[in-house]
Amino acid sequence: MVSSVGTTTASTSLLSQAIAAAKSNAAANAASASSSTSTSASSSSSSLSSLGGNFNQFLTLLTTQLQHQDPSNPTSTDSFTAELAQFAGVQQQVETNTNLTSLISATQDNQIASAVSLIGKTTTASSSSLPLQSSSASLSFTAPQAEDVAIAVTDSTGTVVKSETVNASAGTNTWTWDGKNNSGTQLSDGAYAVAVEGSSTDGTSVALPTTITGTVTGVSKGTTGVNIDMGDATIDMSDLTGFSAT
Q1: Where is the FlgD Tudor-like domain (predicted)?
Q2: Measured between alpha carbons, how far is 59 from 52 in angstroms, rounded to an integer?
Q3: How confident is the model over 5-47, as pLDDT tens digits?
Q4: Residues ≥6 apart with Cβ < 8 Å to 1
Q5: In 3D, which of 209, 141, 205 has the Cα closest to residue 12?
Q6: Rounded distance, CA 41 to CA 105, Å?
Q7: Is 210:218 a contact under the CB 8 Å cutoff?
Q8: Is 129 exposed, middle or buried (0-12, 13-18, 19+ CB in 10 A)?
Q9: What's the confidence (pLDDT) of residue 33?
Q10: Which residues, 6 or more positions from 48, have their beta carbon under 8 angstroms from its beta carbon?
C-alpha cells in the first residue's frame, strides 16, 4: 500500500509529468477502443481485392498475348509454361489469403469461446486503462526505491479527474481509488486512463508501468485479437497477467 505525502517542488514536477502521461494514455486508449473488427475485415478485404485484381489483370494480359502473337513466330513453349506457372502462383496466393482470413476468424472465435470462462473473475493486466467498477479501482506498480511517486487519472476525454503524490516503498506497491475526483465528487463507473511517475536510482524521472485489476464482464473481437471487457474498459487479452475466481 502507499500513503499520501505533502507537496514539494520535486513532487510537483513528477505530478506534472504523470498528468501529461495520463492524458497521452487517454488518447491512445480512446483510439484503440474506437477500432473495430470491421476495420480489420476491411483491410483484409482490400488486400484480397488488390491481389484478385492483379490476378485478373495477369489473365487478361496472357490471353491478349495469345490472341496477338505472330503465327510465324509463336511464344516458345518454355516462355508459355513459365507464364502459366506465374498464373497458377497468383491463383494459389489468392486462395491462400482467403483461407488464412477464415482461419484467423475461426481462431478468434475459439479464443472468445475459451475466454467466456473468465467472465465474473477478478483479472490483472498490464495496461494504462483503469476500470472503475462499483466505485472502486485498483492498480499496482513497482518502485525502484522508497520514494515519492505521482499518480494521475484522466477520463476518456483526457480531463484530469484525480492526481496525487504518494509515498511508495521499494518494490511492488498497490494504489486503490475510490472513484472520487480531486473535488471529492463521486464519478460514474467507466474506463479511465492512469499514469504513474517515479524516480530511478540515479534521480531521473521515469514512468512506472501499471498493472490494473478488474472484474471481467465480457469478451469481444478486436483488430489484433480478442479483447477482455472490464466494465467500459477494454483490454487486449494478451495483456492479461493473471486472474482469480473472486
Answers
A1: 110-240
A2: 11
A3: 655 566 788 999 999 999 999 998 887 766 543 334 444 455 5
A4: 173, 174, 175
A5: 205
A6: 10
A7: no
A8: buried
A9: 66
A10: 94, 97, 98, 101
The pLDDT of 136-165, averaged and rounded, is: 95
Q: Give 179-205 as a 3 state SS string.
A: CECCCCCECCCEEEEEEEEEECCCCCE
The number of beta carbons lying within 10 Å of the beta carbon of residue 59 is 13
Which whole number is the average pLDDT over 114-124?
A: 85
Asked whether 127 and 235 are in contact (CB, 8 A), the reply is yes
75 contacts: CB under 8 Å, gap ≥ 6 = 65, 66, 69, 83
- Is residue 109's pLDDT more than 80? no
Q: What nine digits make up the cell of 94?
A: 489468392
Beta bridge partners, 3, equal 167
Question: 73 is written with which cell numbers?
Answer: 513466330
pLDDT at residue 26 in the model: 92
CA dihedral 34→211→242→111, nearest 10 degrees, is 10
Average pLDDT for 182-208: 92
Considering the chain, what is the average pLDDT of its residues?
Answer: 80
> What's the confidence (pLDDT) of residue 44?
47
Residue closest to 41 by CA, chosen among 102, 111, 107: 102
Joined together, the cell numbers standing for residue 232 give 467500459
Percent of the chain with pLDDT over 70: 65
**Spatial distance between the Cα atoms of 63 and 57, rounded to a whole number of angstroms:** 10
Residue 11: per-residue pLDDT = 73
Instruction: Check if the beta carbon of residue 130 is closer than 8 Å to that of residue 151.
Output: no
3-state secondary structure (DSSP) of residue 120: coil
Residues 204, 91: contact at Cβ < 8 Å?
A: no
